[in-house]
Amino acid sequence: MNIFQDANRKQIAGRRRTDWLLHMLFVIATSIGVLALCALIIDILIDGIVRLQPDLFNNFPSRKADGSGMKSALVGTIYMLLIMAPISFIFGVGAAIYLEEYAKKGRLTRLIQLNISTLAGVPSIVYGILGLALFVRLLALDRSLIAGALTMTLLVLPIIIVAAQEAIRAVPRSRRDASFALGATKWQTVSRSVMPSALPGVLTGVILAMSRAIGETAPLVMIGALTYVAFLPDGLRDSFTVIPIQVYNWLSKPQIEFKELAASGIIVLLVLLLLMNFSAILLRNKYQKNV
Amino acid sequence: MEALININKLNLFYGDFHALKDVSLTIPEKAITAFIGPSGCGKSTLLRTLNRMNDMIPGTRIEGGIAIGGTEIYSDEVDVETLRKKVGMVFQQPNPFPKSIYDNVAYGPRLHGITSKKELDEIVETSLKSAVLWDEVKDHLKRSAFGLSGGQQQRLCIARALAVNPNILLMDEATSALDPISTLKIEELAQELKDKYTIVMVTHNMHQAARVSNQTVFFLNGEVIEYSDTEKLFSNPSDQRTEDYISGRFG
Fold first, then answer.
1. pLDDT digits (tens, 9 = 90+) for B103-150
2. How far is the C-alpha of A131 from the C-alpha of B39, rounded, in Å?
3. For chain A, which residues make up each domain, given as ranges?
């Protein structure tokens, strides 16, 4: 008996072709993304590599391209990160724990949830306007480092809350049950069972949110971070600048040398982003090995 | 045998669903009581009222009473955490924490304020010995509990439950995810533990109930149809429905 005799060859050939075509389509879709990124990186490396010298990190920006650096911008970005990270971690993760573990799953919680998801997609310039009204004007913090960092915190909070909620939700119900069944209180269960399991996911979310923040320009332009800063911020109330603003400033100048500086600034920013994402992966692996 | 748990006209609702109907039951001390019945008959629900794990399911409502050693456990004065410490639980799927074997067993004692290393070491050792797991793991207590086999993980969960010094141990189909040999080990373990603990087990395996329990309770659609000594229930049931179920006519 030939078990293949009633096979419909035409239909089979058609299915194969569709399969192959879609396979190719997906390969092309992936390649376009990867190629665009490669083109960008190569282009920037060609332009900026000549300016990647100690001067870039040691000097402040100046009117002359030669010897001009981005010390104030680099330090400004790092300071901002240092202020933003702990504040947004505490409030973001706190809100996520409340929503996932404590809040009653009613209409109000759903409304809050919807709002947070929406806020995560609000254009960053809107946060800039809020920051200008709230921190710069109302709280009279002026165009300071702290005003910028707080504005950025507002910007990343929804992202952190959503990421942390997902990580918390991914912890199996059975681990909470095991803890409660031993006589643990809610907080003991959250702190000793749920959070240790959720932490890698939470930290990854926080770091990715941070790396989004250091690339943001619009809200800081809005609250008036200066484009030309030839000193290091001395305290929370001092004015400051960050890398993307410095890059923007250099790009707006006509001389070719400043374009090179801008490219080198972008390289520094990319390296910083890469380092942060890499550390997110390291952290995740480290904690996963511990379990 | 003296009754330790007295359940009196207990009704439980999940929203509109009437899950337990007028359940009255006594459970003897230092013996094994088995709950049997088809899926959805309420046996696990009743088990989870004994350590109030049902409290956490929104929309649960309870009428009637459960007294353990004379104390009404649903009264306002009862501290739920203390209740759960005295009424330990082992679940259907082994659910160790993603921690070391040592830290799994020490989790409970630490919750209740024991911090001294010496004391914890002692508790971990006695608990693992009680769960007949000590000899298999004593040389690598620092290793992850996830490296153990399913049967070992379940015995670890039993050790973890024993570590907080309970009086009652609830086993919710604790062997249904295990192979026959691991199941046998857990059953033998239950036999040993009943000298010190009151054990209540839910099982959908009638043979297991017949093998290990002293008293068996048969549930159907949220009602207790019959409960008596295991031997009597299996050899000479008084209700036709019990007879139909244990002879395999349904369920």
1. 999 999 999 999 999 999 999 999 999 999 999 999 999 999 999 999
2. 58
3. 9-51, 54-290
A54-290 classified as CATH 1.10.760.10: no
- CB < 8 Å to B97, chain A: 175, 178-179, 193
- Rounded-to-integer distance, Cα B232 and Cα B243, Å: 11
Q: Is B195 helix (H, G, I), strand (E, B) or coil?
A: coil
Residue A225 has pLDDT above 80, yes or no: no
Best CA proximity match to B175, nearest among B157, B148, B197: B157
Token digits for B194? Answer: 């009943």
End-to-end CA distance of chain A: 55
Q: Over chain A, what is the mean pLDDT?
A: 87
Q: Of A84-98, A125-139, A218-232, B111-125, which gets the smallest average pLDDT?
A: A218-232
Interface of B with A in 188-217 (CB under 8 A): none
pLDDT band at residue A236, thresholds of 50, 70 and 90?
confident
Q: Which two tokens stand for residue A101?
A: 């573990």
**Which residues of chain B make contact with A177, given a CB cutoff of 8 A?**
53, 91, 95
DSSP three-state, residue A238? coil
Please judge whether B91 and A175 are an interchain contact, meaning their C-beta atoms are less than 8 angstroms apart. no
**pLDDT of amino acid B6:** 94
- Segment 92-111 of chain B within 8 Å of chain A by CB: 93, 95-99, 107-108, 110-111
Answer whether A175 sits within 8 Å of B97, measured CB to CB: yes
User: Over 80: is that where the pLDDT of A280 sits?
Assistant: yes
| Amino acid identity for residue B15 in this structure | G
Closest A-chain CA to B165: A182
Dihedral pair phi/psi, residue B21, rounded to 5°: -120, 110
**pLDDT mean over B60-80:** 92
Question: Starting at the edge strand that comes first in sequence, how are the strands of the sheet with B60-68 ordered?
Answer: B17-28, B3-14, B60-68, B71-72
Q: Is the ipTM of this complex over 0.90?
A: yes
**B69 backbone dihedrals φ, ψ, rounded to 5°:** 55, 35
Q: Which residue of B has its CA nearest to A185?
A: B81
Domains (range + CATH), chain B: 3-246 (3.40.50.300)
CA distances from A2 to A5, A11, A12 (A): 6, 19, 17
Q: How far is the C-alpha of B149 from the C-alpha of B146, rounded, in Å?
A: 8
Tokens of A275: 């380092």
Indicate the residue of B93, B99, B164 with minimum beta-carbon distance to A182: B164
Residue A212: CB atoms within 10 Å: 15
Which residues 32-91 on chain B approach chain A with CB closer than 8 angstroms?
A: 51, 53, 56, 58, 81-85, 88-89, 91
**Arithmetic mean of pLDDT, A225-237:** 73
Q: Supply the Cα-derived Rg of chain B in whole angstroms.
A: 18
| Beta-carbon count within 10 A of A38 CB | 11
Q: List the B198-202 sheet strands across, edge first.
A: B87-90, B168-172, B198-202, B32-36, B215-220, B223-229
